Amino acid sequence: MKKIFFTLTIISTITATAQNKSVLIMNGIAHLGTDSVIQNSIIGIKDGKINLVADATTAKLDKATYDEVMDATGKNIYPGFIVPNSTLGLTEIEAVRATNDYREIGTTLPNIRSIIAYNTDSKIIPTVRTNGILMAQITPRGGMVSGTSSIVVLDGWNWEDAAYKIDDGIHINWPNMVGRKVLDEDNGTFGPYEKNKEYIKQTNELKKLFDDAKAYNETDVKEEKNLRMESMKGIFTGTQTLYIHSNDVKEIVEAVNFVKKYELKRVVLVGGKDSWLVTDLLKQNNIAVMVSRTHDLPQYPEDDVDLPYKLPYLLQKAGVQFCLNNEGGMEAAGARNLPFLAGTAAAYGLTKEQAVKSITLSTAKMLGIDKTTGSIEVGKDATIFISTGDALDMRTNNVEKAFIKGKSIDLDNEQKALYLKYKNKYGLK
Amino acid sequence: MKKIFLFLVSIAIATASFAQETFPINGTTNKNHNIYAFTNTTLVVSADETIANATLLIKDGIIIGAGAKVSVPKGAVVYDLKGKSIYPALIDAYTNYGIADAKPAPRGFPGPQMESYIKGAYGWNQAVKADLDAYKLFVDNATASEEMRKLGFGAVLTFQKDGIVRGSATVVSLADGKENNLIIADRAAAMLSFDKGTSTQDYPSSLMGAIALLRQTFLDASWYKSDKTKKEYNISLDAFNNLQTLPQIFETTDKLSALRADKIGDEFKTKYIIKGCGNEYQRLDELKATNCKFIIPLNFPAAFDVEDAYDVANISLAEMKHWEMAPVNAFALEKNYIPFAITTADLKDKKEFWKNLRKAITYGLSEKQALKSLTTIPAEMLNVSDKIGSLKTGMLANFIITSGNLFDEKTIIYENWIQGNPYKINDYNTIDVRGVYNFSYQDKRLYELKIEGDIDKLKGTVLIDTTKTPVNISVAGNSVSMSFNPKDITGTIRLSGNIISEPIKMSGKGQTPDGDWIEWSAIYKSALTPTVKKDSAKKQPTFGKVIYPFCAYGKPHDEDAGFFKEAIKDIKNPYDAVLIKHVTVWTNEKEGILKNQDVYITEGRIVRIDGDINAPKTAFAKVIDGTGKHLTAGIIDEHSHIAIYSGVNEGTQASSAEVRIGDVVYSEDINIYRQLSGGVTTSQLLHGSANPIGGQSAIIKLRWGKSPEEMKFEKADGYIKFALGENVKQSNWGDLNTVRYPQSRMGVEQVYYDYFIRAKEYDAKQKAFGALSDKEKASATPFRRDLELEALAEILNKKRFITCHSYVQSEINMLMHVGDSLGFQVNTFTHILEGYKVADKMKARNIGGSTFSDWWAYKMEVKEAIPYNASLMNQMGIVTAVNSDDAEMGRRLNQEAAKSVKYGGTSEEDALKMVTLNPAKLLHIDKKVGSIKVGKDADVVLWSDNPLSIYAKVEKTIIDGHIYYDSEDDAKMRVEIQKERARIIQKMLDEKKGGAPVVKPMPKKQKLYGCDDLETDYMNAD
Q: What pLDDT does residue B571 have?
């Protein structure tokens, strides 16, 4: 009894070993992440990459070229789900200040880098990947310019190991036009809503930062190094993405007009609760939306009761690029519910394959990593998993096997261990 | 400067015809016992009696004669009021005239304040200010009285608006002078509210706390009265007792709060006069049933600025509709025979009073009712109808002289006489010079001069050639002055002169801009041609229907009935029965899941479940095709905080067992509808988890549209919230919250021991006292009822059941032990995230668990919370439920239940039971709800798919056989809401075009409660 527990704990702390076994997965239902599905598929993994994707009913192949053949008949295969805009690994227990590393003081903090605080040993991470989430964008919060995010795979001895794309983009929280004063921070009491008198000042501060950073990065000789401006270079050259966090329609319009001026190549709107009102504007400016949590209440009593559920569909219909994110209360621990946010989007308008895409390839595209990951396609990372049932539905999500860059990962976690420990205590089957 | 001031003061005193007998005089006495006679007037004695050609006689401030046959005694001062009317001066039964605002007691330090800071032999709570007497605080305020007199008021009720119990109010006259002469009734009414005002003490921090405080104050005062030993002297309780013989006026800020006040009144055999807030029309039936009288304001909201289409989202449908319907409130009350007085209270500017009153009249309020509501009704309410409110012999000479019908827009109030003292507002001797004149000046040419406008605000125009030149004109007595600037002259011509009337001729001298003196004259030629008003101005106002509840997705009571239907009927059910055909039924009974069944529902019950049912021909049944669909029992949320008004926690003390969520159920919460859209039919509304012993919960069925009382689950057992862990020891509330006991889990245990031991002793005492004969009771030491201990004694007597918020095993174990040793049992551990660690101990005591599916890592105490908890407890044979504690998750509870299939392999049938039958068992309502069984309540949900699937959508949610949510109907309502908003938006745009002031819309997001929500200031909660 005790022994079992012991073994489990050990396993759960071990990350994928550097094995390079080639694997062939036979006859599974492959949800490619590209909005298409192969009902009876063959998927080959070699050297950490997908080297074969085919229809089992027509393909001919030599199984012997693979070290291992897996039967996935009736099972579902997905690209690893990606949770973007997440504080996973930056917080352990929200109420315990010492465990929180996602917010720095100050208002403009582009040089703040989340990757170095990313804790690969967070006890939350194994519980998240158990549900098929295999990659994450680790994102700082706070300030008007929160800092720089990085993308990781949910496996690794340390953050260097886990890093997939370091410093992928800078996050700004667009200032609110209307807000309320905090009367008592501890008790969460607020004054009435009023016009944000600082709004113009705040947007001017942003503008100045961007003007300065642009000019700074265009000059060849720097008199003195400026960390903040230095850190913003990529968004002007197109190697980094600018993520603008905003939900209110008027603020979104202002934010879009703001970025237009700088001719940035990569801009993503994060949140976008009101984005369905300005789809044309977003399309014209080639701005994609990282849609706020679909499991949410509508903002206004008059709203359609299912407005948050169908927001992805409204964007899909309008032709706006989008993916799903899970920002909000308990977001780190709740990251494991990302598949179900997509499931809900599928119940309210998207097709199931579109829903899969909204947490895989679409996300990868927005994060600028779609050339190497985000879908089940030949040449891409073998970051995939097998679920016995439909992974978007909590009733059937049951991840049996998962690979990160071709390596089979451990799917146990402390919660499972505790479960087994007490099952044993009570002598339950 | 000083001299002028003194001079003015002396005039003010001189105008008062009375003097104080007991005061020494500086100078010579100036007593005046003259009789004043007002003759040839239309005398409105009261709204019910008008006498033409009447005479009113007054002497020493009292009416000594009123009527047609009254003869004028010799030596009387006579005023001929031919063509004019006399009305009783108006009464405002709700003001703070002449009373200074209360100042809060000083607070020495930040952080909790557990005790009262008021020094002296007062009661324990700062918000109970029963000892306050307004008549002792009253000071004449000549500016304020003049403002009220101009509106026609002669007397007001006034008090200090501060606290929950506000002491007594006084009726004073609006004359100026020494206060000794102004008080008409010293202690005229007792004043109450739910607002703790300037009290700096923490308790109450919630509306339910305020209600509990009031309840306990009633009990304590009554005990105090009967306790002859008076070991404790208590000024507040003594004063509270002394208030009870007075009329009781209760201020409310919402129609539902009026119902709450009435409920308290019923408990303590007090009929309150409700000071309303202007939205009473939104729940008329219930308010009428209270039999209360009302005092209502005319505070009609301004239109919103709706030009910015995006900003409009911030205006709720309720606000839009209220803007449109607020002026109809008074008429709605009149039409429903609800007696009410009208007050100027709550007006941003008192000058709006007449404009708004006239608006209410165009919306249907009768002039007669308006007059009553401003005279006799408030006088009767305040027991001063022998003195004021009508014009009868022996009453105070409080009356107004008007040019005609008081409610006519053109009518001028000339004079307001108060206690026999005249206050001139407009001079009725002023010659009405309005008309068209032949006007000449300087060059002897004749021009046309037109004088129009209000009598105190004349506007002149002179036609010089073809140019209309404006003329400034003012008239005082027989003098007139004018100035204008003809286009051919640089500078202004100024004219002064004299008026001779019948016919009017004005003439005199003037000066040109150069200083040359000229002669001028204006001779009356003709009357003004009346300007024809556009028809639209006289058009009857139109407005939408009242919807229940008064917010988005509310419905009118009866589609066909207009708003003014005499008796509004219950929500009309267009069908007698519901028949669902060919559906997969999740029975939650031993039959399990039955495929292709017909389910027949009528009279609120499940009547038949069978393979093939035909609806009886006699009944009009709504037949629903359930092919491919699933029918389950309605979802029951064991732990919810929706539909709660103004505070979910009374966490200011370690125990708040006396507070009741049932007092503050909020039937207008949109989240009720949203939960219905997720298949929820019953919710337990729990107190928060701020203290070890929380408040009493309410179990409601989500009967959207009904009143709070109608929502309550009939004959359900009483529950109370307990809580353990970080919240009750205030671990995460910041550094200031280190004052309130307990601060550790060790202290939590002692709180329970202490309270339950006291409750045990209390219970024994209460039982012993109850066993005494009436005679023995009279001589025994009186028993003091304590609602807090009484609630705990109910637990000991198995009449109230505990739902305990809990996380870690140590404290769960502790509470079970406390229960064992004191003879009570926890009914349900809620949250219970470490239930899996103590499942055997819970099972042994038959305690249920209601948990979250997968929440964890948000606090230290949920570090070992696991999503397998529900499955494990269920496997151990514990009655296991999955709850929400969250308005968002509440509408996806089927999905949360499905997680126990994923985590721990619970069967689908068992998983569904976790949100239906099992919570029903935990709430002791499983005999009525929780499964689909013949004879049970027809609380069922029709799903598009397997109810545990994320793809399942609710198509119909049925409670008591009524369809409360219908996805098809919902789609229609969305369109209707949009149309209704668009219609009102157009009206608001017109209002802005018409020059009316408009308000910028601001967001007012609703506060969503979770367990941890504290409100230090419940009055500002939105």
A: 41
Among chain A residues, the shortest Cα distance to B862 is held by: A93
> Can you tell me the distance from the alpha carbon of B808 to that of B835, in angstroms, rounded to the nearest whole number?
8
B505-538 pLDDT, tens per residue?
999 999 988 888 998 999 998 888 766 555 545 5
The residues that bridge with B606 in the sheet, in sequence order, are B601
Whether residue A340 and residue B866 make contact (CB cut-off 8 A), yes or no, is no
pLDDT the model gives residue B1018: 55
pLDDT (0 to 100) of residue B856: 96
Q: Where in chain B are the domains? A: 435-526
pTM score: 0.93
Interface test with A, best of B950, B999, B1009 (most A CBs within 10 A): B950
The CA distance from B797 to B786, in Å, is: 16
Cβ contact, residue pair B866, A297, below 8 Å: no
B857/A194 touch (CB, cutoff 8 Å), yes or no? no
Contact A393 B868 (CB under 8 A): no
Min CA distance, B999 vs chain A (Å)?
A: 12
- Condensed to tens digits (0 to 9), the pLDDT of residues B849-878 reads 999 999 999 999 999 999 999 999 999 999
> CB–CB of A178 and B1022 under 8 A?
no
The DSSP H or E segment spanning A13 is helix A2-13
CB atoms within 10 A of CB B434: 18
Question: Do B317 and A301 make contact, defined as CB atoms within 8 angstroms?
Answer: yes
Q: Which amino acid is at B699?
A: I
Give per-residue pLDDT as tens, B757-782: 999 999 999 999 999 999 999 889 99
Average pLDDT over residues A312-320: 98
Kind and range of the H or E run holding A128: helix A124-129
DSSP string, B978-1009: HHHHHHHHHHHHHHHHTT--EE-----PPPPP
Which residue in chain B has the smallest CA separation from A302?
Answer: B552
- Find residue B631's DSSP bridge partners: B585, B942
Share of chain B above pLDDT 90, in %: 80
d(CA B481, CA B496): 4
Residue A249 is inside which H or E element, if any? helix A249-260
Q: Give the mutation candidate from A394, A412, A414 for the B interface (greatest B CB count, under 10 A).
A: A394
Alpha-carbon gap, residue B1022 to B1019, rounded angstroms: 8
Q: Do B857 and A92 touch (CB under 8 A)?
A: yes
| CB nearest B857 (choices: A124, A184, A426) | A124
What's the pLDDT tens digit per position in B183-237?
999 999 999 999 999 999 999 999 999 999 999 999 999 999 998 887 899 999 9
Interface contact B836-A249, CB threshold 8 A: no
Q: Which chain B residues contact residue A400 at CB under 8 A? A: none
Mean pLDDT lowest among A184-188, B664-668, B996-1000:
A184-188
- Out of 3.30.200, 2.40.128, 2.60.40, 1.10.10, the CATH code matching B435-526 is 2.40.128
Helix (H) or strand (E) holding B188: strand B183-192
Q: Which among B855, B1006, B1014 has CB closest to A187?
A: B1014
Closest CB to A395: pick one of B671, B732, B901. Answer: B901
pLDDT at residue B1006 greater than cutoff 80: no
Q: Taking CB atoms and an 8 Å limit, are A249 and B310 in contact across chains?
A: yes
Mean pLDDT for A21-42 is 97
Cβ-based neighbour number of residue B624 at 10 Å: 20
Domains of chain A by range and CATH? 17-78 (2.30.40.10), 81-373 (3.20.20.140)
Q: Output the pLDDT for position B106.
A: 81
Say yes or no for a CB contact (<8 Å) between B316 and A300. Answer: yes
Rounded to the nearest angstrom, the minimum Cα separation between A401 and chain B is 15
For B866, nearest residue in chain A (alpha carbons): A415
Give me the mean pLDDT over the A130-149 stretch: 97
Question: Tell me, what's the ipTM?
Answer: 0.95
